[in-house]
Amino acid sequence: MSKPNSFRYFRTSPEVIRLAVMMYVRFPLSLRNVEDLLHERGIDVSHESVRFWWMRFGPLFASDIRKTRVQRMRAYSNWQWHLDEVFVKINGETYYMWRAVDHEGEVLEALVTKRRDCKAALKFLRKLMKRYGRPEQIVTDKLRSYGAAMKEIGNADRQQTGRWLNNRADNSHLPFRRRERAMSRFRRMRNLQKFAAVHSSVFNHFNQERSLSSRHIFKRNSAVALAEWRGLCAA
Predict the structure, then answer these.
(1) Structural domains present in the chain
(2) What pLDDT score does 54 carry?
(3) Is 235's pLDDT higher than 60?
(4) Higher pLDDT, 208 or 224
(5) To bridge 121 with a disulfide, which of 1, 110, 134, 149 should be the other Cys (CB 3.0-4.6 Å)?
């Protein structure tokens, strides 16, 4: 059975939609910035179209990326996880976005909650382990919610805490913070969770660890990632 065409009822070409979604999610650009950049390329679309496209196709693209990466990540990502949480303001209220990355900086999961207690930490850990299994080590900060959740699921002996041990998780928040400023923050918790999931997958797809490879290898890997992106959701 052939795969259904996700772009069937859209007059705009799939190439333009993929380009607009990639520019908006990957780079710290506003909707009107993307509209202006597309206009310079001779593509006349409204910023509202860009908004609709990322809301409609962003989760589909992220799902395609995860399907091809989750099995490979299972094989090597369970050595060490880095967990951290960051606060996000939504209409003046404080929410918390929990994030897990592996030892190479791949974003494993992102979850938004209203509280930063044991219940929220337990929900995050269970969701994470349901997809990737149990890791050998879990590095966290000294938040007590982690310790309580670890004891309940039987991972207390695998937890590590230290002042500088969790820099990998702290640095993983920086791309999201740049996007948050460009978007003038968020309006709803549901939209925050949706964007965090899409942004994490897109970041994983294009993250080539530039400082760890030569320019030739980096350019080759980037070209491969871009070619794979252009084939997402293809019929």
Answers:
(1) 14-72+208-230 (no CATH), 77-187 (3.30.420.10)
(2) 93
(3) no
(4) 224
(5) 149
